[in-house]
Amino acid sequence: MKLHYLLVISLICAVAALIGPVSAAEADVTVTSSSLDPSVLMKGDTGTLTVTIKNNGADPVVIRSARLYNDGVVATSDPYPAVGELGAGNNKTFTFTVRADGGEGTFYPKFVVDFRDGGTLRYQVPVLVENTPLSASVIGKPDAFAQGRKADITILVGNPRPNAASGVQVVPQGTGFTVTPTGGFIGALAPDGSSTVRFNLTPTAETDVAFQVIWRNGINTHTADLTLPITFSEDKRQADPVVTNVEVTPIAGGYRIVGDVMNAGLESARSVLVTTGAPAAPTDPFRVYVVGTLDPDDISSFEVTFRADGGAKEIPVVVEYRDDDGNRYTATTMVEVGGVAATPLEESDGGIPPLGVVVIMLAAVGVFGAIYYSWRRK
Amino acid sequence: MEAGFLRVLLNPGRFFEARMQDEPSLKVPALIALVIGIIGAVSAVLAANLIIAMLPAEAQAFGVIGVIFAAVFGVIGGVLTWIAFGIVFYLISMIFKGKGSFKRTLEFTGYGFLPQVFGGIIGAFFTYLIISRITIPSAMSPEQMVEFSENLATMLVADPLAQISGIVGILFMIWSANIWIFGMKYARNLSTRDAALTVGIPVGLYILYTLTTLAGWL
Smallest Cβ distance to B134: which of A309, A342, A370? Predict the structure, then answer.
């Protein structure tokens, strides 16, 4: 009878020795953390999913495989076919490369660990996919664009996404303009953060300027375009030289115009020159009258001399000036000359022509010869 | 007249000496003054035509009247100039105790104007050249016409041809002065020095005035 009891006890101990430790290890392995880089994917983005498990039991467990099952995101990396033993109290990290092939939303791909001695560990990893791009807007531009005139453009880039964007830059693209700088770098933009970039843009023709916002979400590069149409129009603030108080006077060989030029605009007119245009031909001494800088509401007198065909009734008085960027502008004012003066048709340099000298010499010889003769014959 | 105009121009001393033998006669001097006046009238008419060209068609009739006035005043101007010079010479010669009738003074002064005939012809020719080189603007308002006339005067003075005409006129005036010296010497019984002063003072002032007018380009 004693032998019978001993055999039963031994059998129980043997079974306990074989079965008892495995059952305890399955229950003690847990997922301690999971992370996704970038934390929020956009559709088509590739990210890195990391899952960490820990053996909380007193005995080691043997893990046969670990894999990730698709749900909204696709694991593009291989599963772990033979992991091995995880010691008591140890951690193990599994990393998967995933791609967001589904739409927007929160997806739960399954992380599954198979143990050698039977049993599995299943864990649903949350993955957020959101397609909201960075926003860009023009917060500063001139009232009007003009050909060749430098314009300050300020672009505001904001990040409405729930995760940070890195490597943010703004690059103007298109033709028909020059821009400085050729690109603006912002760097990292925190969620709900914003930053501005300034450009000096000089259009040479009417065009559309595309400000392309480029950023990275993890390793994925994204772009968003902001189009700014450039159409030329009159600048409400630009300098406006006005010619007034004009007085036309005929002079030998041409005309003289004296008058005032006033800047009726709101910006300074620089390097102001006054001259006459066709059909008038500027002549000395005042072919061109240099006024210099005319600030708003400033006035300056000018004087120009020119020659014109007698049939010309109106002569254009041309005011040339530059803006602060050096762009050249002209303003033309027609001045009546035909109604107030006569013009010698032939060109004259103001001196006595050679034939006149001959006439004077002959007359002088004749007169003084006669006088000399009259006193000799007295 | 037996001495001829050439003798007045080239040998005025002998001419006036011979004339002193006859009674004073103003016929020939008046003829000379008239010719000078006519030549002056030609210049005046040329200038008047310039103004008429500015007038609108309906005012052209007034322009014709203007031309007639210009011609009449041109002729009268020649005679008045002759008389004015005669009076001036007569008065200045009184300072040098000159003796002789005013009629004789006027007669010899008229002969002295003979070179002015040539000077007047040359002056009229230059006036024609100047005016032919000017383009007249079309019909204007009365205000513009006034302004035009002022501008025209300024421009004519500054024209090189007008300057040549002025210098030539001075030369012929010097020639006339030379004749007048001989004329006053006999007409007012003056010494050569006093006769030269009698003529030189007004003629010198006249030449000075002319040069001042032309000084804009000199």
Answer: A342
- The phi, psi pair for B146, rounded to 5°, reads -60, -45
Domain boundaries, chain A: 24-129, 135-230, 241-336
CA angle B190, B195, B200 (to 5 degrees): 165
Q: What are phi and psi of B169, to 5 degrees?
A: -60, -40
Tell me the per-residue pLDDT of A244-299, one tens digit each, with 9 for 90 and over. Answer: 888 877 666 677 888 888 988 888 888 888 888 887 888 878 888 888 888 888 88
Token pair 């599954």 in the structure block, residue: A112
**Pairwise CB contact (< 8 Å): A356 & B138:** no
Secondary-structure class of domain A241-336 per CATH: mainly beta
Inter-chain Cβ pairs, chain A and chain B, closer than 8 A: 112
Residue A51 has pLDDT above 90, yes or no: yes
CB < 8 Å to B12, chain A: 374
Residue B215, SS3 per DSSP: coil
B8-20 per-residue burial string, b: 16 or more CB within 10 A, e: under 16: bbbbbbbbbeebe
Contact check, Cβ <8 Å, A250/B168: no
Nearest CA-CA distance, residue A320 and chain B, Å: 29
CATH topology of domain A24-129: Immunoglobulin-like (2.60.40)
CA atoms of A144 and A231, how far apart (whole Å) = 8
Topology alike, domains A135-230 and A241-336: yes
- For B155, the closest of A252, A309, A351 (CB atoms) is A252
**Structure-token pair, residue B85:** 């010079």
Structurally, what CATH architecture does the domain formed by A135-230 represent?
Sandwich (2.60)
Q: Quick check: B154 contacting A, CB < 8 Å?
A: yes
User: pTM for the complete prediction?
Assistant: 0.50
* Contact check, Cβ <8 Å, B172/A249: no
ipTM surpasses cut 0.90: no
